[in-house]
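Hi, here's the filled form for the chain we discussed.

Project: internal
Contact: R.S.
Residues: 127
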Amino acid sequence: MKSLRTRLAVALAMVAHVSCLRTAPSTCSKSDPATNPLASSSLATDQRFTFEGMIEERIDTGNYRYLRVSGRWVVSLAMTSPSEGRVRVTAIGRATDFASKRLGRRFDVLVFGIVRAAADAAEGELQ
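And the returned structure, exactly as it came back:
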């Protein structure tokens, strides 16, 4: 059985791909970083990391939620991410100088991650 982390990572990649198919189907490719930023920003399993912190700022954009957690910007699926409080982030990707067309802004560093309430993560729900 796949772990919750793996299922959420696959779901994040699928949502990015489906969004691409809706907006630019002729140019969309799972491995094209222009249409799927996670494709070029994915971290190898042994490079993934976790951190905890308080949500300091939140920007909701359709299927995605951008969170500033203890000074670091993280993007995750809106439907699975808490909108406030203390969270644990499992980083599955990392991009530098990331430009969000939807937000019209750049991020020096953007972490692609699975975000859970810290209490839930501590109870072992990410197994």
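Let me know if anything looks off before we file it.
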